[in-house]
Amino acid sequence: MAAPPDSKSDKSPEELLCAAAEAGNDDAIAEIISSGADPTYFDASGMTPLMRAASGGHAAAARLLLDAGAPWNALSPEGLSAGDLTSDPATYDLLLNVGFGMGLVDQAIQRYEPEEHTIIEAHPEVYARMLKLGWGEKKNVRILFGRWQDVIPQLGSYDVIFFDTYGEYYEDMREFHEHLPKLLNPGGVYSYFNGLCGDNAFFHVVYCQLVAMELASLGYSTQFVPLPVRDCLKAEVWEGVKQKYWQLDTYHLPVCQAESESE
Ligand SMILES: C[S@@+](CC[C@H](N)C(=O)[O-])C[C@H]1O[C@@H](n2cnc3c(N)ncnc32)[C@H](O)[C@@H]1O
Q1: What residues are paired with 120 via a beta bridge?
Q2: Domain 13-85: assigned CATH number
Q3: Among 123, 170, 193, which residue has the most ligand 1 atoms within 8 Å of its CB, making it the best to mutate?
Q4: pLDDT by residue (tens digit) across 215-262?
Q5: How far apart are CA 41 and CA 102, in angstroms?
Q6: Cα 194 to ligand 1 centroid, rounded to whole Å
């Protein structure tokens, strides 16, 4: 008897992978990937397996796919990435970013229209530029001008914290981490710019482990989500930059949560 048209045998390994991702079936995903299915596949609707996992809210499935090389920045026909398609996202209303710099992270934060977005910036010229660009007038933005070490008594507690004072010493970041138990709300997420030894793959991984161990001693577990960045960092990106501070193909995005709350 012929198999029904929608039976598994009619589907390519990649279609099966999309179906397993949509269902959050981690065992099937691992099996299909190890049998050689391509995680970069786009199905007939222009969706990747990672987008299917994300829109189903299956975090473990998404992690398996990312580990297998699924592109995190692929876009659906509507121009949405897997991150944009995440279903039922947790509500993060109170955000803190330490170090404005070019304002890239803060611009990204603003797209989520948080209730309260606090920015700490110490450099007078960067602060002046922030004001010139209108950051001082944004209703949901609170700017604290000064070193984080000095303005910390003015802080509350936050659902999301990002730390990037690149240029400070490792010891400064470690000191900041000691404040996390007071600064990070239950269920909150902490991340930092993971550029430590960004020109040496071996020492970079050592640093990742070191930070994760130190955060673990404070009661936090850290996952590093591998994000391929080689294609985003072409030669022109570095034009005018004196020292190329990042030379690796993969960025390891730290996602740090209280141990009791992480998966
Ligand atoms: C690499 S930039 C941040 C880039 C930023 N993440 C972005 O998206 O453009 C680092 C920023 O941290 C600021 N900074 C350095 N040390 C600081 C400190 N102790 N407290 C507050 N800001 C600091 C610097 O003035 C600089 O603007």
Answers
A1: 98, 144
A2: 1.25.40.20
A3: 123
A4: 999 999 999 988 888 888 888 888 888 888 888 999 999 999 998 765
A5: 34
A6: 14
d(CA 70, CA 64): 9
Boundaries of every domain in the chain: 13-85, 94-258
**CATH T-level assignment (fold) for domain 94-258:** Rossmann fold (3.40.50)
Residue 163 near residue 174, CB atoms below 8 Å = no
Ligand 1 in contact with 150 (CB < 6 A)? Answer: no
Q: Which residue has the tokens 């209280």?
A: 258
Question: Among 95, 96, 100, which is best to mutate for testing ligand 1, by the most ligand atoms less than 8 A from CB?
Answer: 100
User: What's the sign of the alpha-carbon dihedral 229, 232, 236, 239?
Assistant: negative
Reading the block at residue 203, the tokens are 């020492």
Q: What is the ipTM of this complex?
A: 0.99
Where do we find the tokens 């400064």? 172
Closest ligand 1 atom, CA of 103? 9
Q: What is the pLDDT of residue 38?
A: 96
Percent of the chain with pLDDT over 70: 94
Q: How many residues does the chain have?
A: 263
- What residues pair up with 117 in beta bridges, in sequence order? 95, 141
Q: What is the rounded average pLDDT for all residues in the chain?
A: 90
User: Ligand 1, atom 5: nearest CA belongs to which residue?
Assistant: 101
Q: How far apart are alpha carbons 224 and 212 in whole angstroms?
A: 9
CA of 206 to the centre of ligand 1 (A): 24
Cβ–ligand 1 distance for 246 under 6 Å, the answer no
